[in-house]
Design the sequence.
């Protein structure tokens, strides 16, 4: 038993490239020993089709049972051959399977082939279908019945063909969601005032389809506890739909910083919810700490919006706020590296940056 475990461990490490948590997790699903030749046959088949070591490592870390549960020639090869018979290149097939290994577990005749026909009929031609597969590999494991119902539902609402194509490319997996859930989510967005032909609709549909009604209501209750009105919550969702998927502890931490430390109002934050999409530890606090140092030392008289500063690329921020002042104010480097604690009180007392315009009052 011990020798078999050691064999599996070394096999996963040396031949599959697994380590750490991925290795420990994979071992829970595997029982093969040195007398079993199937694991090597699986890897050999993948290599024959052009899968690289990083590809294999990802696939096995996601589906370790591939090594022992399936005959690679009977189960995997026909599906890979079929995908290669489409207009997909070998490299594209490898990329699709690497991202969504579950496709190799789907029935070729009862799932993959019928689904590809549906995608072609929905998108208009095989070229569009191939483009969908490349952009959204998870569409290949959609439920065919749900796919058809959901695509037809969008057409019934007069959603333009071009918009359906965009949604398929961006989030094709949504078409496999249970029809009742998909339908309810689309109608909810429509009732909220979303234009079904807009990019806002494309961005807002995934959070609703993926999240539960209970999650939606709990997030609304949480925002209300911080003083947001229903209109302000809706405004934030329209501008930053993913906000309803944030974990509660992350929302609490960000509300604590913006509403209490920077003293933004709920109204101000609902107007600029994009600032909530940044990491507090990696971006927001370090940048505000840099501003704090500059404010305290009167290093500049320029006026900036905090939301604009947070939206800057790292390169631009470092150039304008760190490199430009580090000789005169060495502390900006420490602040940027997170070595100086952000002090909201001194930050609000000294305002050489005309921070009134940023909403920090």
Sequence:
């Amino acid at each position: 038993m011990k020798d078999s475990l050691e064999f599996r461990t070394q096999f996963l490490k040396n031949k599959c490239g697994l380590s750490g948590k991925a290795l420990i997790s994979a071992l829970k699903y595997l029982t093969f020993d040195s007398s079993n030749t199937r694991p090597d046959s699986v890897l050999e088949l993948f290599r024959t089709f052009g899968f690289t070591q990083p590809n294999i490592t990802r696939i096995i870390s996601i589906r370790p049972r591939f090594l022992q549960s399936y005959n690679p020639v009977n189960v995997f090869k026909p599906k890979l051959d079929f995908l290669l018979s489409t207009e997909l290149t070998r490299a594209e097939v490898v990329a699709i399977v690497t991202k969504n290994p579950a496709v190799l577990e789907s029935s070729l005749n009862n799932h993959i082939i019928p689904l590809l026909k549906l995608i072609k009929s929905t998108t208009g031609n095989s070229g569009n279908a191939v483009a969908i597969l490349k952009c959204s590999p998870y569409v290949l494991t959609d439920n065919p019945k749900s796919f058809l119902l959901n695509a037809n539902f969008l057409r019934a609402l007069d959603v333009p063909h071009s918009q359906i194509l965009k949604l398929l490319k961006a989030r094709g997996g949504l078409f496999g969601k249970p029809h009742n859930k998909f339908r309810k989510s689309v109608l909810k967005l429509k009732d909220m005032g979303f234009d079904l032909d807009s990019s806002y609709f494309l961005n807002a549909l995934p959070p609703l389809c993926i999240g539960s009604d209970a999650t939606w209501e709990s997030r609304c209750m949480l925002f209300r506890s911080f003083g947001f009105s229903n209109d302000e919550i809706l405004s934030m969702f329209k501008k930053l739909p993913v906000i309803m998927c944030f974990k509660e502890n992350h929302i609490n931490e960000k509300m604590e910083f913006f509403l209490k430390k920077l003293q933004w109002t709920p109204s101000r934050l609902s107007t600029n919810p994009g600032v909530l999409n940044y990491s507090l530890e990696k971006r927001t606090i370090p940048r505000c700490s840099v501003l704090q140092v500059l404010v305290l030392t009167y290093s500049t008289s320029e006026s900036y919006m905090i939301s604009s500063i947070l939206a800057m690329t790292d390169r631009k921020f470092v150039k304008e706020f760190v490199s430009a002042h580090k000789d005169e104010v060495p502390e900006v480097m420490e602040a940027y590296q997170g070595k100086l604690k952000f002090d909201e009180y001194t930050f609000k007392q000294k305002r050489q940056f005309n921070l009134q315009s940023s909403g920090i009052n």
About this structure: Residues 349-361 have pLDDT under 50 and may be disordered. The longest helix spans residues 280-297. The chain has four domains: 1-105, 107-209, 213-277, 280-358. The two ends are 67 Å apart (CA to CA).
